[in-house]
Fold this sequence. Notes:
By secondary structure, chain A is of the alpha/beta class. Helix content of chain A is about 35%, strand content about 15%. Chain A is built from 13 helices and 15 strands.
Amino acid sequence: MTSLIxxxxxxxxxxxxxxxxxxxxxxxxxxLDGNSLGALPRAAAARVAKAVTEEWGHGLIRxxxxxxxxxxxxxxxxxxxxxxxxxxxxxxxxDTTSINLYKVLSAALSIAAHDTPLRKRVVSERSNFPxxxxxxxxxxxxxxxxxxxxxxxxxxxxxTGDLAVLMLTHVNYRSGAMFDMQAITAAAHKAGALMVWxxxxxxxxxxxELEGAHADFAVGCGYKYLNGGPGAPAFVWVxxxxxDRFWQPLAGWWGHAAPFxxxxxxxxAPGITRYLCGxxxxxxxxxxxxxxxxxxxxxxxxxxxxxxxxxxxKSLALTDLFIALVEQRCAGHDLELVTPRAHSLRGSxxxxxxxxxxxxxxxxxxxxxxIGDYRAGSGEGDAAKDILRFxxxxxxxxxxxxxxxxxxxxxxxxxxxxxRPEHNQPQAVT
Amino acid sequence: MTSLIxxxxxxxxxxxxxxxxxxxxxxxxxxLDGNSLGALPRAAAARVAKAVTEEWGHGLIRxxxxxxxxxxxxxxxxxxxxxxxxxxxxxxxxDTTSINLYKVLSAALSIAAHDTPLRKRVVSERSNFPxxxxxxxxxxxxxxxxxxxxxxxxxxxxxTGDLAVLMLTHVNYRSGAMFDMQAITAAAHKAGALMVWxxxxxxxxxxxELEGAHADFAVGCGYKYLNGGPGAPAFVWVxxxxxDRFWQPLAGWWGHAAPFxxxxxxxxAPGITRYLCGxxxxxxxxxxxxxxxxxxxxxxxxxxxxxxxxxxxKSLALTDLFIALVEQRCAGHDLELVTPRAHSLRGSxxxxxxxxxxxxxxxxxxxxxxIGDYRAGSGEGDAAKDILRFxxxxxxxxxxxxxxxxxxxxxxxxxxxxxRPEHNQPQAVT
Lengths: 430, 430
């Protein structure tokens, strides 16, 4: 049995413990939803205030040059690149994950139509994040492709000779299950298809080696584990061998080779810059940079380890602890672990399913200051299960936080307080 | 001849004069580039700081409900609606102008393909803002449509029986020339085509009556005359009769009928909400609301006049004054007015062309604190002219500012200081 004292010892020995001081966290809260919205880096308040008052207010239009606004997508992209195994100059921070997915699917289908015109299928996982499926559904319908959704376990049989593109989210948003990026990318290529990865629950959460895995395209989110703030711009990576082959249809001025020549014909910029479109939200971009810096700060904590190596070690220790404590202390409450136990198959979150009451249990936890979230089931099999989702962000979560969170869960279950009517009030957004 | 004293009198009598106090403007600057990036409303600094510290930092994920993040696109859209002659619930603030244009062109072409399948042409103005043409070029190529660019004067002859969509920017970004929205929309409809308007240089600058003109689709910009801050989200309006007919391909979770049901099939929300896609940059959205409020504040300045009526009266007085002073005081310096003299054909800016030196003249003005901008010519005819562009934003520009700006222009021309080498240094962004 793991005790609170054991957890206090783990915190005291944690080489990343000082990284928590980078964040402004509310008193009385154990925050287990950094996989939905990362916490506020303290530096962001002053940095955004400077962008508002000095750059916008005083610099006005001059700040495009003087404050470096024009280079933000590439500068932030380079910082993201170091976290996802990509080279400098191959990532831009821009737009939203959904829109970036539209861009890369468009490019991937253009390449497929040129190189493998007889392949007319796109495959994804049925329990992929729904917005990814909506975007794929729209573009497949436009381009005359068939979108097939399969269970994760059936992927191997779906890699047939008519497959053009395989599109997957690396870490599942519900279960926290992680695909083997290298093996699946190799299998997709062996089948003659292109590979698109969504890193929404991976970037800043688990080590990613896009170039090492020889992936083709990737997108990801700025406001989850990258702590970029609510609705922070997303990112897009394209393998350099593909970047200059086609342009994507969201062809705005910022992706033009000569944006200030104001010519009526579109000429895409070389490389990843052609994945930019319109003017980006500078204030939100500014906050995103503080979020990226908060992750990169893990670089120096363990000698010889990259930021993501150090963060991964603590993340696995936190999720291992969470699973162990739930099993030790909450047994008999019908909570079912939906997250894989094997480290190689797990992201940075823990999902617990319960046949009834999952929504109310999460509301009861939130009212105690333990903030995770609830995801309703829909469909069949594992996807039909209602789950409690607990994100474990190693930058600001302590081992004692995990102990206390499970203690609250135990009390909520044993007292039956989750059955009180006030915990069953529906909310607009949950 | 108009004197400085005349201008001081105009300022003293200006019913909008107190609106300037809403803005934080740098000392020693006459800001004539609000058509590129609007000035900072003082309220925005505190409002954005609250969004960072309280909503993000303290509220964390709970702010989706508690701080009203989820309703921002519609709430801001309703404020924009009152400025562009649209009904509540028909506008959303979201994404960028380019991306919103892609959405509405996509919907317009879907409607055209269904209702008028033999029409295969899209027409726009050759001197339209280039990014609009790039987006149109991309989607026309995708959908098998021909994009024809014509001069503004040749529009009438371009409205032929094969026209599917006419896409125009209401106020030209270079010349400030304004189309007659009502007449051109009627002509497009008479020719059997749909009408798409870009209001980038109109919203907050000139009165717009989208519903009164029976327009079909419109997009516009949040960071120019709406003062929403650098890269503020843009907006999109769709006539209610079209809104539910088709969905647009950027089909993300925020446009779903039941975004938290997490179903794998896309079901578009009714009405304009289906023009939302992914998660929006909340900090930048928050600043945009302050910008919108700064425009709506003109509502109470002249009894019985809407915000846009009052602003339009002052805008025309400012641009009339600017033109008169340049002609009175800068004659003989080869500055050619490219903005129409007729009020009905003029937006809220003044463009001056010069065969040589326009870039250096603007740099010399900027070094004196008179901030307008320069747009290089390209192509033929008027489009080939290099121009000095002066935006006249009635919310914070005084008549004496116009007098002083023209005095600086006069001195720059008479002294020849624009010919100094330091004013010919190229910049990344101009």
